[in-house]
Amino acid sequence: MRSIIFRTAAGLLAIAGVFFLVMSEDAPREMWGFSGLMGAYAILGNRIG
User: Fold this and answer.
1) By residue range, what is the domain housing residue 15?
2) pTM score over 0.85
3) How confident is the model at residue 15 (pLDDT cuts 50, 70, 90)?
4) In the chain, is it the N or the C terminus that has fewer CB atoms within a 10 Å radius of its CB?
5) Does residue 3 come out as left (phi exceeding 0), alpha (psi in the -120 to 50 range) or beta?
6) How many domains does the chain have?
7) What is the DSSP secondary-structure string of 23-45?
């Protein structure tokens, strides 16, 4: 189960990195919203797993 959590975290970090590179020229508001969604997804994933 621990490996699944680490794998999910690595995937979320990769998505966040790509998203940050794409949206780096825009206002950081989108990045905050996206990181909030990722945090909620991680919490739900840990709760389900």
Assistant:
1) 2-48
2) no
3) confident
4) N
5) alpha
6) 1
7) HTTS-THHHHHHHHHHHHHHHHH
Contact partners, residue 20, CB within 8 Å, separation at least 6: 31
pLDDT at 39 over 60: yes
CA geometry: angle 6, 26, 41, nearest 5 deg: 25
Of 49, 32, 18, 17, the closest CA to residue 6 belongs to 49
Contacts 24+ apart (CB under 8 A), 44-47: 45/5, 45/8, 46/5
Residue recorded with tokens 């966040």: 16
Inform me whether the pLDDT recorded for 49 exceeds 60: no
Contact indicator for 32, 43 with CB cutoff of 8 Å: no
